[in-house]
Amino acid sequence: MHDQSESDLLRALADRAGIVADYHDIAGTQHVTTDETRRAILSAMGLRVANRAELIEELAGWENRPWLRGCEPVHVVRLGRAAGTWSLYVPCEVPDDAVLQVCWSLQLEFEERPREGVEGPGLRIEETRTIHGRRFVRVALSTPPDLPIGYHSVTACAKAGSAKVDATCRFIVAPERCYIPDQLHHGARWWGIALQLYSLRSHRNWGVGDFGDLASVVEWTGRELGAAVIGLNPLHALKNTKPYHISPYSPSSRLFLNDLYIDVEQVAEYQTAPEVKACLAEPSFQARIEAARRGELVEYDAVRSIKREVLELCHRAFLREHWEGEEPELQPRTERGRAFHQFVAREGESLTSYAVFQALEEAQQAEHGISATWADWPEHYRIPTSEAVREFRHRHMQRVGFFQYLQWLAADQMLALVKQTHQAGMPIGFYHDLALGSDRYGADGWRSQEVLALNADCGAPPDAFAPEGQNWGFPPLDPLRLRTSGYQYVIELLRKNLRYGGAIRLDHVMALFRLFWIPRGLPASMGTYVHYRDEELLAILALESVRAKALVIGEDLGTVPDWVRDRLEATGVLSYRVLYFERTHTGAWKPPAHYPAQALAVVTTHDLATLSGYWEGADIEARSTLGLFPSEQARSAMLSGRQWEKAGILAALKSEGLLPPGVPDDPVQVPTMTTELTEAIHQYLAKSPAWMVLANIEDISGSRAQANLPGTLDQHPNWCRKLGPTVEELTHDSRFERLAAQLRVIRPSV
Known about the structure:
There is one protein chain. The protein is of the alpha/beta class and 750 residues long. The mean pLDDT is 94. Among the domains are: 61 residues, no CATH class; 95 residues, Immunoglobulin-like, CATH 2.60.40. The longest helix is centred in the middle third of the chain and has 34 residues.
């Protein structure tokens, strides 16, 4: 090591940390990782790499880490496979290895008393190493057989002479595959509707689609149309302020719900509290609600202000009616008070931390301005476990309690909706979207600093749509510190998001294997891939999926190697297939029969043009208006390419006998998307063997504008467009009834 160059040392450490030496983009172009990028990413992982001496020290530390720790932090055991062994590293300074004996204690996740055992003396030495003049040995211990699935903690104690080791490892015992309902194995092929919840209009909501509107959609699509599933945008907690904090894919926290979706009128205190009735009686307040309801776009700040005002009054009434005593000794005195108390206890530290962050941020922004982030707070507030934060929580218990109350209301309404999907006979119910990351200056960024690489961003390498690459602006999880923590954040993240429905979509599922890191301050083109321990992450995914009885869909679009899709398929993760991208090697549209069965198929997504917008070139028009084309030639090429694609769609429909009567196969003669053509395209997808097919509500209703135009922030109304028709009008729209009848025939539920 000492005779290697600094560049060689840097490469060696980067290789151990999972940083790739090079990668190929979607066009097959090779990109070689620079030393500057390596150094910046290693530094973002908390490693000291400023010079040669630090690199040598870190490399030695890397090699010796498990030996000095006593064991690896995590060990995966798969059901159905031989239990095998796990390694313990022991300082052994006595000459006779035969005296080595190991006592172990295994604490199963749901058992009170640990199991205990002894191995040795006479253990076989697998490997020997000298570290700082001390001799260490590695022994292989038998993994106890027949362990139940779950997260178990094993502690091993070994003594050899005067030296001893106490080491703890998390055993992750997981099934081989994610949950897959039996009906799918017996021929069921499901379909459903996908929507952006915020976009729903109604005569009763307060300017944003809410859980009350979603209840109406469940009754309509589940009971009347026979849909198996309703696909939703991420419902994660947002700050709900324009323009930076409204994207559901850049939330403040992925662990909790967006309280903007609470149906205020369903809250018990709304019905009973006199202060709420007084507020609602004010003409000016009613005018604010009506203005928010009437607007063409969701006015997040206005809606947040209106709802927050009433919910604060509800919380005040809740404390008065259901609690007794004086702070900080308040005690619940009613069933409703006890239900809240149990919720807070059940959610534990993560909810408390989230609520404290909300209260702290509110207080700091009131003092220092709305643009202040937690990175600007006084240092003692930047550390969630500090004494100053504990004191703040104690002083502001009522405000912290308010934010816990909001999450209780949101969770209660969401769980009631889940129950409603079951009653409506929907085999899946809700299909949720789990965002890839969260805002570094949000609640998760503050609470989870220990496992986040805050000095890096994640994104995507250069491709045809973004020649310079993409920077998504949020920090990646650090694979080293994440593993050391036993993956607790990942476990919690999956568990909290899987409890509200029968399916979940993992945005950018390739992040289970590798993620494109970009050092802060450098362009996306200077980024490179970092590998994760996919075997461990897939085990956790399968375990949580089986426990929640929820299907997992992996968004596997873009630069995804074949081996990644193979591993996901073997783990029971459904592939995510978008009609626009499903082409043969000639560019023609794949026949339905060529779609994989273990998949969810859709026509389009939130980042792409709607069906009408695609057909009529609305997305090209929007990009042109915003100056997003590098040249007029590029715009013309896209327009001519679109005509060729449309001709291909018409030809594909014709080959399947689905081209509507009277519709020519020349796209020039079909300038607009018709109801009949929309139906034919969805029938085309429905004929595929894909286990699930979703139809976007915007496509059926004929909307031209897409939810999000990538590459824009405030130049385009991303994440705030409302649907044209109201929920009440949608439920009487014959286009939905017709398409549902066609899909029920093609895709039987049993």
